[in-house]
Amino acid sequence: MSTTYPYTLHFITGNISSCFGCKNKYKKPLEPPNDLCIQHQDWREYLTPSSSTPQRKFSNVYYHCRPQCIQLNNLYFIPIITVPPASVVTPIYTTATFTCEGTGDIFNWSVQGASLTPAIAQQRGITYTDPGGPGNLSSVLTISALPINDGIGIGCHIISFLPFEYASSGSTLTIRGIAQVEDLQYSFTTNNLLLITWSRPVYFSSDIPIGSSVSYQVLVTDEDGDIILDTNTPNANVALPNITECDLFNVSVTALLAQYTSINNTISNNGSYAVNITINKDNFIRPNVTIELSCPPSQSNTSLTITSDSTAVIDQYTFTGTDESINDIRTLIPYHQYNYTVRVFNLRNKLQYETYTII
């Protein structure tokens, strides 16, 4: 019996055909967790065509993941886990923790019967603490409650030497709740209509009653947090009038199913109603005032007010069309002060931008 080489979990692949303990062949096809064995290095005997004398070779040997198989070559094989991991039920998108403690030389975590590797840890959102050792071993595994992790098995395995001891203990992660909606997006129509669409959640926990209907809470707010829409709908889309690319707004969609409420999925639009006014004073009596709009008149209510000496309104009009550049050319009376003020309202008649220039 060798006690100076590690015992590790290993997939049954390649030429691995039988257990070094019980000598029985591994049954195929191999399905998890029966596709795993325990690998160790030891002396094994074999015959060659050129000699009738058994030859010895120090190489890898493989056992069933059963104590009785290992005990055939290691008489002191006994359980050594003092605190086994307990099964956990947790809400979706939270985190769950599993604790395992024992005594020995080697500590391993497994997921779905496979040794926990960095790739598996990254894929499933797993971290774990260093178990320490040899001697007293203790590790805490933390896993994200992602839909792909529902129902997976979490196991811990401890091996010690002199005498050889091996123990394993398993637990299960169960996730409850509903996933968030997917593919949340929006588009604008030619008649200034905002269309918001999304896809149904892809995950529902198994405890939701059969036949339950899903609905969606939709909240749309503007840049000040004022509510544009707050509604519940069974459909996977809503349409809102008088909202354009120029608007700044936030969309939140939450799925409701039976006793569960999903976390919300959000999306935003960062529009602009900014205005820039420039003056060409080559002809002071008849200046050319250019007004550059970031939002065209067809998607806003934009007006120009011209006052003389800050009091008398000499002209006021609303821009129309789709041009984002408007020129105002008129004859002015010398020695008077003229104020050109531009006000931009959205299609819901809320002031979005105001600026002025003085001539």
From TrEMBL:
InterPro entries: Ig-like_dom_sf. This is Ig-like domain-containing protein. It comes from Amphimedon queenslandica (Sponge).
